[in-house]
Design a protein that fits this description.
The complex is a heterotrimer of chains A (about 290), B (about 230) and C (about 260). With about 290 residues, chain A is α/β, with parallel strands linked by helices. Chain A contains 7 helices and 12 strands. In chain A, strands 1-9-8-5-4-2-3 form a 7-stranded mixed β-sheet. In chain A, strand 6 and strand 7 form a beta hairpin. In chain A, helix 1 packs across helix 2. With about 230 residues, chain B is of the alpha/beta class. In chain B, strand 1 and strand 2 form a beta hairpin. The longest helix of chain B has 16 residues. Chain C has about 260 residues and is of the alpha/beta class. In chain C, a hairpin with a 5-residue loop joins strand 4 and strand 5. In chain C, helix 4 crosses helix 5 and helix 4 packs parallel to helix 6. Chain C is globular. The chains are: A alpha/beta (about 290), B alpha/beta (about 230), C alpha/beta (about 260). Chains in contact: A-C, B-C.
C-alpha cells in the first residue's frame, strides 16, 4: 500500500461521485454532471472510468480491467496497476471472478451477474453532440424528449451508405425515455446491455456520469425499414472456434494472411482451456512459441 | 348589386404642409344586375377615384358602398378580400404582376383563388388569351416584356377569367386596335348578359354608347360644384 | 369565422427604449399580413415576440389550436411552444443558414421535422422529402447534397420546404427575400404566393421592401419607432396612405 487514500480519491470526492451514480441509477440514461478530478493520467485515457471505479471499489472487491476486450494491452495493465497500488484490491483476468470490471470499448462476452458492476470509459457522453454543438440546446432536447435529430443522423447514414453505417457507439433509448451513447462499444454489444449487472458510465473530460440499473430496457434506434442488426465479422474465432463472439482481425504477414480472434481475451482463453480449438489454433501456438523463444 | 350613398373623399397630404383636398361629396350611384353604367367627366374629376373606393383601394371619408350586401366602407379586411376574390372584379389601367410568372398563370390566377383546378383554370386562360389575339408562343413568357397593348389585353383576360357578378373596368379599350376593341366589348356584353353589374370608364364614346345603359357624370360630386 | 391569431396589447421594452408598443390585430386563415418599417421601427422585435423567440413585456398572443381552443402562446409551457413551432408554426429566417442544418443533407433537413414528430420509416420520409423539394423547385438529384453546396436562393427554398413539410397553419417570415438577387427574389415570391394559396397558409411577413409586401401580403401594418402608425389592406395603405409617415415611405420608393 502507499500513502494514497483508498483508491486515490479522497472520501468527500467519492461521496460526490457516489451521489452522481445514485442519481444516474435513479434516472437511467440521464447524464449527471459531476466535478471531475485531476487524475494522474491525461484526459482521453480513461479518467472518467477510473473515477467511477475508485468511488465504487471496496477493499473486498476483485477488479478486472480490459481495453478493447483484452486484459494485456497497455492501458488495461496500467489501470490495473494503478488500483493495485492505490487500493490494494485483488485483481483478475477472469470475468467470472471479478466483482468490478472496468472496460474500454467492449462488453465481456460472458453474461454478467447481479453481484457484478461494469464500469465504462466514455469519451463523448452526448449522443447528439456531432449534430447539435450547443450544450444548452442538447440539454433542452433531452429534457423535452426531442430526439428527432438522432434519427436525422441515422437517415444521413442510410442516404450516404445505403445502411446505418454507425458501427460503434450506436445510440440507444433507455426505458423508453432517454437517448444514450453507450460509449464506443461495437454495435454487436448493444443487445448485451440488457443485463443483470449494474452498468456505470464515466466521462472524465466531459464531467458526466450516467448509469443503467439491472435489467434496464435498452433499445437500439433504427427505422422500420432499416432495423438494427448486431453484426460482426462473418467468421469463427481462429483460436477457439467461437461463432458468437466479437472478433479482432489480425494481419499475420506481408502476404495479407489474416486471422480472426476473439476480442475478449478471457473468453477465448477459457474456451481453449476447455478444449475448443479454432482453425488456426495450432499454427498460432507455434508462432507464439517462436516469438517467446 | 352596387349601391353607393352619400359617399365623400378627401386627401390629406401631410408632407406638403398638411394640405387637405376634398375631392368628392355626396356621391350617389346604383347599378343593378345586367346593367352597365359609365362614369364620365373631365380628367381629374374623380372617375378612377370613385372606382378605387368601390374596390376598397381608397378609403372613404364618409358614406356607404354596398356591394352584394357588404359595405366596403366599414367592412373588415377579410370581408373585402373575400369580396374581391369571389364577387368584385377590377380591370385597372395598369398590369401589375410578379416578375417571371408566365402569362398563362397570370390569367389563370383568379380562378385558382376561387378553387378551380389548375388545368381547368389554364384552359379558360388559353381561351381568353386566344380570343384577345395574344399569340400562343407568348403564353409561357412573362407579360412584363410585352407591349402596352399586349399587357392591356393580358390584364383584361385576367379580369374576365372568373365570372364576377360585379365588375369595375377602367379604360378597358384604351391602346387597343379595332379588332381587339371589338372582342373586349363582346366580353362586356357577355358579362352583362349573364347578369353582371358593371361600372366602366370609357374615353371612347363609341364603345361607351355600345355597351353602357347609363352615364353618370362624376363632376356633380366634386365639392363646390353642386348646384 | 374565428381568427387564427389574436394579438392583444403586445409591448416589449429594452429598459426605457421601446421595442414595440401596444400592438393589436387579428389574423384570419388565409391572410398574409405584412409588417413594414425602416430599421429600428420595431418590426423584427414584434415578429420575434409573436413567434415566441422573445418574451413580450405585456400582452397576449392567442393562437387557435387544432382542437379549436384559443391558447395564449406567451404563457404556454416551453415544451408545448417548441412542439407548436415544429408542427403548426413555421419560421423562415432571413439568412437560410439560421434556419437550416448546414451539415445535414437537403433530404435530412426536410425530413427532420417529420422525424421529430415520430416518423420512423426511412423510405416514406425520403419520398416525402423529395416531394417537397420538388414543390420548391429543387431537383430530386440534390436530395443528398448539403446546403453548403446550394446557391442562396436554393438555400432559402430549402428552408421553406423544411418549414412547410409538417403543414403548418401560420408562417412567420423575416425578410424572406433579403440578401437574394433580384431575379431570384421574383421566383421565390411567386413560389411563396403559390404555397400560401395551395396550403391555405396564414403568414406574417416582416420586410422593409414595399414591392415584396405588395406582391405577397394582402394586409399591411406600418411601424415607426415601435408603434403601428397605419394598418389596412396592402393596396389601400400603399395607394391611399393616411398617416404622414406612410405617405413619406411610399413616396420615397424609387421607380424603376
Amino acid at each position: 500500500m502507499s500513502d494514497y487514500n483508498f483508491a486515490y480519491l479522497d472520501e468527500q470526492t467519492k461521496r460526490m461521485i457516489r451521489r452522481a451514480i445514485l442519481k444516474g441509477l435513479a434516472i437511467p440514461g440521464y447524464q449527471v454532471p459531476f466535478a471531475s478530478r485531476e487524475m494522474p493520467m491525461p484526459y482521453g485515457w480513461g479518467t472518467g472510468g477510473v473515477q467511477v471505479s475508485a468511488a465504487t471499489l471496496t477493499p473486498d472487491d476483485t477488479l478486472k480491467v480490459i481495453d478493447q476486450g483484452a486484459d494485456d494491452t497497455t492501458n488495461a495493465v496500467s489501470i490495473r496497476k494503478f488500483f493495485k497500488k492505490t487500493a490494494g484490491v485483488a485483481t483478475t483476468e477472469e470475468t467470472a471472478q471479478a466483482s468490478v470490471i472496468q472496460t474500454r470499448h467492449r462488453i465481456p462476452e460472458e453474461d454478467l451477474r447481479e453481484d457484478q458492476i461494469l464500469v465504462y470509459q466514455v469519451p463523448i457522453p452526448e449522443p447528439l453532440r456531432f449534430l447539435e454543438p450547443s450544450e444548452i440546446e442538447t440539454r433542452k432536447m433531452h429534457s423535452l424528449e426531442e430526439y428527432g435529430l438522432m434519427h436525422v443522423k441515422l437517415y444521413e447514414d442510410i442516404a450516404k451508405h445505403g445502411a446505418i453505417a454507425t458501427s460503434y457507439a450506436y445510440p440507444v433509448k433507455v426505458e423508453g425515455r432517454y437517448v444514450m451513447d453507450p460509449s464506443p462499444i461495437p454495435k454487436f454489444d448493444n443487445p448485451k446491455m440488457e443485463m443483470a449487472a449494474i452498468q456505470l458510465f464515466g466521462a472524465g473530460r466531459e464531467q458526466r456520469i450516467y448509469a443503467l440499473p439491472p435489467y434496464c430496457e435498452v433499445v437500439s434506434l433504427d427505422f422500420e425499414d432499416y432495423p438494427f442488426e448486431a453484426s460482426k465479422a462473418d467468421h469463427a474465432c481462429d483460436m477457439c472456434g467461437a461463432t458468437n463472439s466479437y472478433l479482432d482481425e489480425v494481419i499475420m504477414d506481408d502476404a495479407g494472411n489474416r486471422m480472426f480472434v476473439c476480442s475478449d481475451t478471457d473468453y477465448c482463453a477459457s474456451r481453449r482451456k476447455a478444449g475448443h480449438m479454432g482453425a488456426q489454433a495450432a499454427a498460432a501456438s507455434a508462432a507464439l512459441k517462436e516469438t517467446a523463444a | 348589386m352596387i349601391e353607393i350613398k352619400n359617399l365623400s373623399k378627401t386627401f390629406t397630404l401631410h408632407n406638403q404642409g398638411s394640405v387637405v383636398i376634398p375631392v368628392m361629396e355626396a356621391a350617389e350611384l346604383t347599378v343593378a344586375r345586367g346593367e352597365c353604367v359609365a362614369l364620365t367627366g373631365a380628367s381629374g374629376a374623380g372617375k378612377s377615384t370613385l372606382m378605387r373606393m368601390i374596390y376598397g383601394n381608397y378609403l372613404a371619408a364618409g358614406g356607404s358602398i354596398i356591394v352584394d350586401g357588404v359595405d366596403v366602407v366599414t367592412a373588415e379586411p377579410r370581408e373585402i378580400l373575400a369580396l374581391r376574390r369571389d364577387v368584385l372584379g377590377y380591370v385597372s389601367q395598369f398590369l401589375r404582376v410578379v416578375p417571371r410568372v408566365p402569362t398563362i398563370d397570370v390569367v389563370a390566377e383568379p380562378l385558382l383563388s376561387v378553387g378551380v383546378e389548375t388545368e381547368l383554370a389554364r384552359d379558360r386562360a388559353r381561351d381568353l388569351l386566344a380570343r384577345l389575339n395574344i399569340p400562343e408562343r407568348l403564353w409561357s413568357l412573362s407579360p412584363t416584356s410585352f407591349s402596352g397593348g399586349e399587357q392591356q389585353r393580358v390584364n383584361i383576360a385576367r379580369g374576365f377569367a372568373h365570372t364576377y357578378p360585379a365588375m369595375l373596368l377602367d379604360e378597358p379599350t384604351a391602346s387597343l386596335d379595332a379588332a381587339n376593341r371589338e372582342t373586349v366589348l363582346s366580353l362586356i356584353e357577355e358579362a352583362k348578359a349573364r347578369g353582371a353589374a358593371i361600372i366602366g370608364i370609357f374615353h371612347d364614346e363609341a364603345a361607351r354608347d355600345r355597351v353602357c345603359d347609363r352615364e353618370i357624370d362624376v363632376s356633380v360630386f366634386t365639392p363646390g360644384m353642386a348646384a | 369565422m374565428t381568427p387564427l391569431l389574436k394579438v392583444e396589447n403586445i409591448s416589449k421594452f429594452y429598459g426605457r427604449r421601446i421595442g414595440c408598443k401596444d400592438v393589436n390585430f387579428d389574423l384570419y386563415p388565409g391572410e398574409v399580413m405584412g409588417i413594414v418599417g425602416e430599421s429600428g421601427s420595431g418590426k423584427s422585435t414584434l415578429l420575434n415576440c409573436l413567434a415566441g423567440n422573445l418574451d413580450p413585456d405585456t400582452g397576449e398572443v392567442l393562437f387557435e389550436m387544432r382542437d379549436g381552443t384559443m391558447r395564449d402562446t406567451v404563457t404556454m409551457s416551453e415544451p408545448e411552444r417548441r412542439m407548436l413551432s415544429r408542427t403548426d408554426w413555421a419560421f423562415v429566417h432571413q439568412h437560410a443558414r439560421d434556419g437550416l442544418r448546414m451539415n445535414v443533407s437537403a433530404g435530412g433537413n426536410v425530413g427532420e421535422r417529420l422525424m421529430a414528430v415520430g416518423a420512423r420509416h426511412y423510405g416514406n420520409i425520403r419520398d416525402e422529402a423529395i416531394d417537397w423539394l420538388g414543390r420548391v423547385e429543387i431537383n430530386e438529384t440534390r436530395v443528398d447534397d448539403r446546403p453548403t453546396q446550394f446557391s442562396g436562393g436554393m438555400q432559402q427554398r430549402l428552408q421553406i420546404a423544411r418549414n412547410l413539410v409538417t403543414g403548418p397553419r401560420l408562417v412567420f417570415m423575416d425578410e424572406p427575400t433579403g440578401g437574394l438577387d433580384v431575379s431570384v427574389q421574383a421566383r421565390l415570391l411567386d413560389l411563396l404566393r403559390g404555397l400560401v394559396r395551395e396550403m391555405g397558409l396564414s403568414a406574417i411577413i416582416v420586410t422593409h421592401d414595399l414591392a415584396v409586401v405588395r406582391l405577397l401580403a394582402n394586409r399591411l401594418m406600418v411601424m415607426k419607432d415601435g408603434h403601428v402608425v397605419e394598418t389596412g389592406l396592402t393596396d389601400q395603405v400603399l395607394d391611399d396612405p393616411q398617416h404622414a409617415y406612410t405617405q413619406l415611405l411610399v413616396s420615397s420608393v424609387l421607380q424603376v
